Structures are given as structure tokens and as C-alpha cells.
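Sharing in case it's useful to others searching the archive later.

Someone asked me privately for the predicted structure of TMEM205-like domain-containing protein, so I'm posting the question and my answer publicly. Question first, with the sequence:
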Amino acid sequence: MPTLSTLTTLGPYHFFTYATLLGTSLYQTFVMTKVCYNALPRSAFTTLNKRVFPVYFQGQTLLLALTAATFPPYGPLSLRRSMGDLLPLALAGGMAVLNLVKFGPATQKAMVERGWQETRDGKKASDPDVSDEMRARKKAFSHYHAMSIHLNLVAIGGMVWYGLRLAARLDFG
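And my answer, the predicted C-alpha cells:
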């Protein structure tokens, strides 16, 4: 049974916030996206992603902020003094914010424009003889999507880096 002092310190909240951050990031990136891509028709997959990824990037950014805010013993004041912990969280946070404000929305916009171009042309983007407009839409989507994927992977790398530092401080004795 936890004691009152355990419940009033930041440690347990920090641990659960970080665990939620890493778990949701890994699950969304490596499980749900792949399952949905394989199970859904492209139009349904596109519709789902337009709804899921903005929420994912918002949640990831919020959980990173909460992880920093609950850094023991005094939140951001303590984190500021620990450059080894600040760096991986700042790296992950920077990548998450870039996806939230720049590359996530740009990817979504390019995906929608590619769909509209399919309607205008009467051809799928994957058809071999697409219009110049479709080639431009596909190129824009590929660029933004690749950036978003890479930023997300770098963010996860920062989270794992931080998790290794956190785990090294655990005392099971």
C-alpha cells in the first residue's frame, strides 16, 4: 500500500506519464498503423488517419510536457539541472511539436489534395500514367509523409534514450 508521501511526490506520476508516452507512441507507430494499413481499403485508411494522427501528435506532445513537468523532485526546475535527461526529452519534444504544427498538417493536406486530384483525373494515384498535377501531389505527399515518419522515429528514439536513463536510476534493492 502506497504511503501518503509516495502519493505526494512526483516520482510515481513521472513514471506513469513516461510509460504512457512511450507505450502509446510505440503502439500507434508499430502496431495500429500497420494493422489499419493492411486491413482497411485505402480510402478508409486515409479517412481514419485524418482523424487519428492529429490526436496522436497532440497526445504525444502533451505527454512529453507532462513527463517534463513531473520530473522528480521539483519538475522542470530539477530537469533543467540534469542536461543528460533534458536532452532526450527536448529532442523528443521538438520532433513532436514539429509533427504537431508543421509536418502532420502538411501531410494531411497533401493526402487530401492527392485524393481530390484522383477525382479530377478519374485515375488512382498509383496508376502508371498520371497527370503532371498528380505527380506533383504525390511528390508533396511523399515529402511531408517521409518527414513526419522520420520525426516520429527520432522522437521515439529520444523517448527510449530517456527511458534508459530513467531505468538506470531504479533501485530494486
